[in-house]
Amino acid sequence: SEIELTVLPEVDSTNREVAKRLSTAIGNTPVVLAEAQTAGRGRRGRPWSSPKGENLYMSLGISLAGGFQALEGLSLVLGVAVARALEEVGANPIGLKWPNDLYAFGKKLGGILVEIQGELQEGRVQVIAGIGLNVHMTRAESVDQPWTSLALAWDREDWRRSQIAAAMLAEISSSIRKFEEEGFAPFREQWQARDVFQDKPLTARDGDLSGLGGGIDAAGNYLVIKGDEFIAVKAGDISLRVQ
Ligand code: BTN
């Protein structure tokens, strides 16, 4: 399907904007980029710091075959696709924190918010995927975790947001095609190679489970190593234990 690209100077949230466009779109893939967001959203209801002109805020509408079971895999596939795009444009290496936070040198560089729109129709589900990437940002208010930006992490100022967005769209569309045809399996290794938690102490299930990072299983669940046991974690935040 054809990409329908819109670039806005300011919007509440590019995810909301794509949701509006998805309901009227026929077959096309709406993509919305904004210079600033007044109500940028993160996962778990958190706000997403979205100052003007410094970062990348992009959302796209995806019509996905395979229903709701496919969604968990999709989150991880998107993380891999975005990481690959960033590495292609020189932001290498990118780390992934389960399910799909983007990391550089141990700090959060960006995140992906996946939301479902509407009902399952003819075996397809409409998904809105929003990507937030810190590009030129060197200071931020009210960010509740260690963060970085492309400029800070690689000490370079010549990042071009249009080039980054184009690389992301290309990687995302080819990854989604592959995911629909072959499922999650071809992505497991690529996700795992970027796992920021591998062999590191972590807690999951809001602190109830602690162990070492053990990568992901074939379905994309995160595995926590406790003694000689692997425990699969589906939902809930995983956070590195503060030492
Ligand atoms: C996270 O919590 O890590 C996910 C952050 C996702 C932020 C992006 S910015 C573009 C899109 N629009 C939003 O309101 N959120 C996503």
UniProtKB/TrEMBL annotation:
Keywords (alphabetical) are:
ATP-binding, Biotin, DNA-binding, Ligase, Nucleotide-binding, Repressor, Transcription, Transcription regulation
Positions that bind biotin: S13, T14, N15, Q37, R41, G42, R43, K108
UniProt GO BP: regulation of DNA-templated transcription
Catalytic activity, reaction form:
biotin + L-lysyl-[protein] + ATP = N(6)-biotinyl-L-lysyl-[protein] + AMP + diphosphate + H(+)
* Residues spanning the membrane: none
Family (UniProt): Belongs to the biotin--protein ligase family.
What function does this protein fulfil? Acts both as a biotin--[acetyl-CoA-carboxylase] ligase and a biotin-operon repressor. In the presence of ATP, BirA activates biotin to form the BirA-biotinyl-5'-adenylate (BirA-bio-5'-AMP or holoBirA) complex. HoloBirA can either transfer the biotinyl moiety to the biotin carboxyl carrier protein (BCCP) subunit of acetyl-CoA carboxylase, or bind to the biotin operator site and inhibit transcription of the operon.
* Name assigned to this protein: Bifunctional ligase/repressor BirA
Classification lineage: Bacteria, Pseudomonadati, Pseudomonadota, Gammaproteobacteria, Pseudomonadales
Full-protein interval shown: 78 to 320 of 321
